[in-house]
Please model this.
Amino acid sequence: MPAATVGVLALQGDVREHVAALRALGADAVEVRSPAQLEQVEALVLPGGESTTVALLLESSGLRQPLEARLRLGLPAFGTCAGMILLARTVVDGHAGLGAIDLAVRRNAFGPQAQSFEADLDVAGVEGGPVHAVFIRAPVVEEAGSGVEILAEVDGRPVVARQGPVLVCAFHPELVGDLRLHELFLQEV
Ligand code: GLN
Model:
């Protein structure tokens, strides 16, 4: 089977790290900055970064509408941190989410940069021991719809969640060289 073409939304944020993780797993990873590039991909990663900036760039690049349309048609998507915010149904304190996963999130709610933290998490569906999770000004899930599967929690708050082909996490698996969450995502592709 040829390798799946997996896009990484490359408007802002830690794009290179995601491209490297996907390539290490054998995917044909490509950067997506335009509607034409979006058409070429079978799945999309939305990296961590600054969701407000990415939301503005989604509008100015003309990507927002075609991306919403692809997501409605079931495009597999994986959002980390800012990417999770962008994929949410509701962003309590920010730009409208893309509505791909039935979550209401609040930005920067695990504290300012100085209070960023790390944790070892058991993630449902991920074998081989806990995942080391780095949280950087991470979003908190305030509400999850009944169709959302919660795969891991911190302090009773979901930090890894899935709904159909959409996977999100509040931390940065791309920063620690642990490929298991990307692998879990690629199982959907
Ligand atoms: N605080 C950022 C935001 O609101 C997300 C942080 C991150 O991706 N590390 O977009």
Q: What stands out?
A: Residues 3 and 146 are 33 Å apart (CA to CA). The first strand starts at residue 5 and ends at 9.
